[in-house]
Amino acid sequence: MAAARDPPEVSLREATQRKLRRFSELRGKLVAPGEFWDIVAITAADEKQELAYNHQLSEKLKRKELPLGVQYHVFVDPAGAKIGNGGSTLCALQRLEKLYGDKWNSFIILLIHSGGYSQRLPNASALGKIFTALPLDIPECSCKTSCIIQSILDSRCSVAPGSVVEYSRLGPDVSVGENCIISGSYILTKAALPAHSFVCSLSLKMNRCLKYSTMAFGVQDNLKKSVKTLSDIKLLQFFGVCFLSCLDVWNLKVTEELFSGNKTCLSLWTARIFPVCSSLSDSVTTSLKMLNAVKNKSAFSLNSYKLLSIEEMLIYKDVEDMITYREQIFLEISLKSNLI
């Protein structure tokens, strides 16, 4: 009788865990030839993303979170129209040839395409999916518990099961509902985040001034869904509510100026609905008010605010400030850990 086989998902999980354990053994070590790739090349969509990737690579190498003795490179795609993975591959190979000449043919190279803006996972849009934190070493993270990644939470705040909080600070009077994603946020005042909320804050550089804006959605909202005309925006949904109804709640008019970019590709990604604020905490608080206004069907006017779309937020993003904020949290957590 043939031996019973494990389900495919179990075998895949075990194989992944073996690879992760092997990678963990190589982190911070000078690898021997053949133990790892000779070159790791990462593609970026633009110069700001390139800057973010290089900075994060530098920090990870400094903390010995990556194998040593490997050449790490970030190659930015050419400006202009998108060239896709094929074009990006050719550009990366050209750069490698310029750097290493004919020798690059003898190297074992890992090429990672990471030049997208991650519309399915917007909290990774600004600093890149390739550097997204995953709770691989936190076995208690599951749909039955919350998952806290590099964040500082007051012991009195509450985070419901299934929710993820990353790179954030939450005060004592903050309550996070089930199945939420909170990223890069700073909430010290009393706040209740509805279940299934997505909240992500970005630092912006506008007219040489540091500003902040926080995108807030429902986790099930489809940011990629688009319509061609203003008359069809009723087909879009924000937090499960007709987008047209949301605009009424926020006292916003339906005009072409409501959307950035291509005026025949109207979506939540290009909708100018997110307030620009002078502080990170005000930014989060204001966006939560607009989210709760939709949830509670109560008016909250956005007319007095400068509004941006996610598309524009990524254009104005201040990579250095966002990385600094994350590093401050990391250092504070490290100091507390050393005192224990």
UniProtKB/TrEMBL annotation:
UniProt-listed Pfam families: Fucose_pyrophosphorylase (PF07959)
SUPFAM superfamilies: Trimeric LpxA-like enzymes
GO annotation terms (biological process): GDP-L-fucose biosynthetic process
InterPro entries for the chain: GDP_fucose_pyrophosphorylase, Trimer_LpxA-like_sf
Domain GDP-fucose pyrophosphorylase: 101-137, 142-278
Keywords attached to this entry: Nucleotide-binding, Transferase
Official protein name in the record: TNNI3 interacting kinase
